[in-house]
UniProtKB/TrEMBL annotation:
Belongs to the LysR transcriptional regulatory family. The keyword Metal-binding does not apply. Keywords: DNA-binding, Transcription, Transcription regulation. InterPro entries: LysR_HTH_N, WH-like_DNA-bd_sf, WH_DNA-bd_sf. Residues 1-59 form the HTH lysR-type domain. Pfam families: HTH_1. PROSITE patterns: HTH_LYSR. It comes from Micromonospora parva. This is LysR family transcriptional regulator.
Length: 303
């Protein structure tokens, strides 16, 4: 017996004083209302209604049971409302602040088509990790080394003028003893200020004789791009970012630098939604080398 459905019929009939009217109010046939109430009476071992008169009247037992039945029906309705709200709950996700707004909008739209209600929160790599740890977001796209990445974004150097070769050798950025020309800096944007990207580049610069100040952290992507647009300085970035800023891009020789991204999530369902259902859409936001459309996804471990 569906005790909630039976109580709903019981409450409806008692409120209208008639099986016909009560059943209509409950949206069920009269015969169904009669069977449900009969089953409820059999379950509790006592009659709920006095059916001897033309108008249906509650028995003393029915009067005692009616308040509890109403509470049960109200709780069932409240639970259904809570379930609907839970299905529509926003999935708060921390994303790299370098993701272009139009691509983030496309990601949110794609998620809604899959009945996933994303609420994106752009942040830097350290802040994204903190937001996930403190559970201020349900999930996050976090920076990881290439070996454990689900999405990978190759990095190179970007400049306002074309490069003379197909790759850039760091030793070509050294200044001679005469120092007749200004030192060209390599600017690291905040998104790449993580140990697995910053430290290898710094060590490579030192080993090739670059001055310490030639590899520096920029306060923001805008500042770094502005410097690259208005001076000989070089911006460490992805090809997509270089194209967005109108800069010329070239990979580094002998040094592979790749942004790696994985998913950090508290719930397995949220994890699966981001790394499967929305994999290609997230790849486009990140400017990843493969967007998943060919089916050849990079192997990786999600956090």
């Amino acid at each position: 017996m569906d005790i909630v459905a039976a109580c709903r019929a019981f409450v409806a009939v008692s409120g209208h004083g008639s099986f016909t009217s009560g059943a209509a109010a409950a949206g069920i046939p009269q015969s169904v209302a009669s069977r449900r109430i009969a089953a409820l009476e059999e379950h509790f071992g006592s009659r709920l209604f006095d059916r001897t008169s033309r108008a249906v009247r509650l028995t003393p037992f029915g009067q005692d049971m009616l308040p509890t039945a109403r509470r049960l029906v109200d709780l069932a309705d409240a639970m259904a409302d809570d379930a609907e709200r839970a299905r529509l709950r926003p999935l708060r996700v921390a994303v790299p602040e370098i993701c272009p707004p139009h691509r983030l909008a496309a990601l949110v739209a794609a998620a809604r088509r899959q009945r996933i209600h994303l609420e994106v929160r752009p942040a830097g790599p350290q802040e994204r990790a903190r937001l996930c740890q403190t559970l201020e977001v349900g999930t996050g796209i976090v920076a990881v080394p290439e070996a454990t990445a689900l999405w990978r974004v190759p990095l190179g150097l970007a400049a306002r003028t074309p490069f003379p070769a197909s790759t850039v050798f760091l030793e070509t950025l050294r200044t001679g003893r005469a120092r007749t020309q200004a030192r060209r800096r390599i600017l690291i944007q905040p998104e790449d200020d993580v140990a697995h990207l910053r430290d290898p580049l710094t060590r490579a610069g030192q080993s090739t004789g670059l001055a310490p100040a030639q590899v520096s952290i920029a306060p923001s992507l805008v500042d770094a791009a502005a410097a690259a647009l208005g001076s000989p300085d070089l911006l460490l970035c992805s090809r997509q970012q270089a194209d967005d800023f109108g800069l010329h891009w070239c990979p580094l020789a002998g040094l592979r630098l790749v942004r790696g991204y994985a998913v950090a999530a508290g719930a397995r369902e949220d994890l699966d939604q981001l790394r499967t259902v929305l994999y290609a859409d997230i790849a486009r936001c990140l400017g990843a080398a493969g967007d998943g459309t060919t089916g050849d996804r990079p192997e990786g471990t999600a956090t």
